[in-house]
Amino acid sequence: MGQSATDTNHTRHHEIPPAKLQIRLKRILKATFVFILHQWLLIGQGVVCILAYYFPDVAKHGGVIRSEYSILYGAMALIFFISGLSIPRQKLFLHLLNWRLHVLVQVFSFLFIPTVMLAIVHIILAGDPHGRIDRALLAGYIFTACIPTTIASNVVMTRSASGDEAAALVEVLIANLLGPFITAAWTVTVLPDTPEFAPWRNGDGDLKDMYRNVFKQLGLSVLLPLVVGQLVRWTCPERTAQVLQKYHIPKIGTVARFLSAGFAGAQQIFKRISPEETIAVCFCGPAKSTALGIPLLYAMWTQVDLFTKAKTSVPVLLYTTEQICVAHFFVHVFLRWHRSVHEKSEVGGDDGQVNGVV
Description:
Elements: H1 2-14, H2 18-38, H3 40-54, H4 56-59, H5 67-86, H6 89-96, H7 99-127, H8 135-146, H9 152-160, H10 165-190, H11 198-201, H12 208-235, H13 237-246, H14 250-256, H15 275-284, H16 290-300, H17 306-348
Helix pairs in contact: 5-12, 5-14, 6-10, 7-8, 7-10, 8-17, 9-10, 9-14, 9-15, 9-17, 10-12, 10-15, 10-16, 12-13, 15-17, 16-17
InterPro entries: Na+/solute_symporter_sf, Put_Na-Bile_cotransptr
Transmembrane segments: 33-55, 70-87, 99-125, 137-156, 168-191, 218-236
Keywords: Membrane, Transmembrane, Transmembrane helix
């Protein structure tokens, strides 16, 4: 009897009061809501994909919203106009001269990624002598590895992760100016020298129209809005800063995503770069551009039938979709890393300098 009374008292002692239980439940619900809210980019992308599946005529080329103008020009122009408003021109000029950063990003994008992809393709070829895996897909993966980095998402993701937005902006401009000339020749060069890949090694397409369209888009949707934003910032610096801060204008660039110094010797290549530049490199290096990749693919291989070209384009679409999802999660990783680096530097260093990574 005494033991039973003791057990009852013990149970009552460990019972959670209703008020505390309610508070704990509210905290759990709040944490869940905040987590879901932070995933709005992925959720939004999923919603857009579903809407595109059920309403394909809305955003297709020549569709209801005329996406070839409203998205490729309008949305991208908005992103780079905001970047022009936000970035000091001195910082842009500094990164234009940052040749170490140029070498790091462009070598990673045009040399390292194609090398890795080519190794993977050769492993697949060695393990699939009977051709069960469509060679058009393998050619598409090699082509994807050779196209330049994407434009808008790199800038948006770098900004969201507290990286160096100016560095990302300069690197994507350089990559997309070089890409139309490098990608075609580089793809044909690294394709396996076997009869299976002969249709793609003998590309004879006329690239003049593609070059004209690409540079027209870069000029109107990237360079012009950037220059206009810089002019507005230069003429009204204080007012521009107030408006950007008050209305959280840089966040609009993320929504629109849907719809360093002179020559000083070879040893300077291995000099450490800042954490902010590191974040920009991590986003710009492995990313690839659908906006340039798809037009270039269709322009390069005019002699290949439409169905084969469509299969070749599948890796481009898959890679660029997956990179947005992966980059979204890495935004949070880089935010924590950036915060911890600065906290350590503030605690451990008297000079306030922050060391980056190679």
